[in-house]
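If you are new to this repository, start here. Below is one unmodified record pulled from the training split, so you can see the exact layout before writing a loader.
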Amino acid sequence: MLRFLARLALVVVGCAMLIGQCLAHATLIDSEPAEGSIVTTAPGIVRLSFNEPVTPLAFKLFDPRGESIDITPTTQDNDLVIELPAARGEGTYALSWRVASADGHPIGGTATFSVGHASRRVVTEGGVSHALAVVIWLARIGVYIGWIGGVGGAFFLTVIAAGRRPVVADRAIAALLGLGAIATIISFGLQGLDELGKGLADLGGVAPWKAGLQSRYGETLGLGSMALALAAIALRLSVRPVAAMIASASLAVIAFALTLSGHASTAAPVWVARPALALHGAMATVWGGSLLPLLILVATRHETAGRTALRLSGLLLPTVLGLALTGLTLAYLQQVTATSLIETDYGRLLAGKMVLVLCMLAIGALNRRILVPRVATGAVAPLRRLRQVLAVDVCLLLAVISIVAGWRFTPPPRSIADAEAALRHRQMLHIHTTKGMAMIQFVDQGGLDIRLSAANGRPLIAKEVRVSLANPTAGIEPLQRQATRVEDGHWSVDGLIFPVGGAWTVRLNVLISDFESLPLEGMLTVP
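And here is the target side for that same chain:
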């Protein structure tokens, strides 16, 4: 049995390593005009820059009167360029955008700018509604029940279970496969609603289903549907070797499908992340899918219950080691730390999952050491206790599945770090000249951090640095400040108050000597 599972694992890893390039969760890193800026004339285009190529989904422009029009962007590498219609008056405009990142998850936001002067904030479309989020979560639970309980259960009955099996076990697993199929079909439409930013009332239209079928998650659902069908066929076959082969293929397809979308599928390096994810999913499916059919064998006091429990118990140790190794690998790639386990939603869900899994492992160890050997002898009392323990195990598995489904709405620490880096990038200005360079960064306390260097890259020694900040489009005259020296090449300005955000003109007058100064100028985005 272990040799067979090892060969299956090699197939899963090989398939996972054949998949696409390494991409991360998308993050908006810049916009033009700058967020919150005020321009004198209406721009002809708006440019959104991301940290990776994205797929445009839905774009809508709100004018100062609150009226909206749908627009279509064009793609230029990692940028989306949106041609704006003719000017629709002065005031604040809002561009509501929605794109799909490489991991298949829709992300969205709103970019604002003003023409002439700022006006009241326009009403923009929000993200996914609470009702839609709940339905998506429930559908994901149904999908995972079909994959783990249905496909994993079919694998258990055709590959692991010893000898004949009761009809009720086949019917129970077939019911789980049916639930998974229904949840999968609904999920196509729900994914489309999410991508298009629509509500549940729009589920009856064609557009959401078309969008869902064409999405990255749609590819995962498509392969998942194939796996459900293969598992159903395996249950119906009476020739055990053929049924075992088809059920194994179904398990491999599920493992492969998991690598096509989701946060974990795009973590770098992809050649580590995707095989680890495939193996983790396959082992979780084998382990979790065995619980319900084994419970049925024990509850019906089937003649094969003891031998099957003993056989499954022998797979516990390698399965647990594989789950632990791949799980730790995925957590490392997602940049999970002890702090993020407490401070992020993703981490808290992961911590909850770990607690539940540890409880399941403790139950598995109890079964292996005490109950299973006694059940194998044919005793009735241990059989009753094993049934109770397995029922608790099934309940814990449902709780784990519910937590995993919640990851759909929680970016991992890796993505949060990318977003924070993008924010720092937007609040940083690089000025390059032949005589010297400056790196100016906005700091949260309301000041500027200034790093000066000469043309050769060494710290620029200056006698004095004066800073001028202006936002003429907002009618704000220059603010004059004297920078404070921290060390050679490092200056700071504290106590700055910016009345408005957006693009500010920054001018530095660096006094190198009594007879030489270096003027530097650039634009800095203030949040």
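Two things worth knowing about this chain: Residues 2-22+129-413 form one domain. The chain has 13 helices and 18 strands.
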